[in-house]
Design a protein that fits this description.
The protein is α+β, with helices and mostly antiparallel strands. Helices cover 46% and strands 28% of the residues. Helix 3 (80-93) packs across helix 4.
């Protein structure tokens, strides 16, 4: 009788815990920002570089942005998705990019363009500055190794 009771309690506790976790995971808390300027990193993006009809490699980039915490708090969506999208569009759509020699790429202009386009899309000057943390090219041959 004690064994059956222990099994029922264990199964009930497991079901209650999974229900509780599921209900709390669905309600992700909105990120709270402190006062002043906030510094955040974006996720790493991989932009395919196509030449001669095939993918030659990928530009791997990671950006950092600074924004006013008060403005961020009022936004209905976080700006990271817009920053990643604009960066991808700029790199992928740039006909002049020499992906085999990225040292000549104008990163200051790139960061300024991303900042301006994101602020325009969000219809508020949320981004104070966009910085480039990582910006590298990985060829298809390097990936296979």
């Amino acid at each position: 009788m004690t064994g059956v009771w222990a099994c029922i309690v264990t199964v009930g506790a497991g079901l209650a815990m999974s229900y509780w976790k599921e209900s709390h995971a669905a309600l992700a808390p909105k990120q709270e920002y402190a006062e002043g300027l906030v510094y955040e990193k974006t996720r790493v993006i991989h932009v395919p570089m196509i030449a001669e009809g095939s993918v030659q490699g990928y530009v791997v980039a990671r950006l950092v942005f600074t924004a006013d915490a008060n403005v961020l708090r009022q936004l209905p969506v976080p700006p990271e998705a817009f920053i990643v999208d604009e960066a991808f569009r700029n790199i992928y759509g740039d006909e002049k990019i020499d992906f085999k020699n990225l040292s000549r790429y104008d990163l200051a202009h790139f960061a300024q363009t991303v900042r301006e386009h994101v602020n325009r899309r969000l219809q508020v000057d949320v981004l104070q500055d966009v910085l480039v943390q990582d910006f590298n090219y990985v060829s298809k041959d390097q990936i296979r190794r």
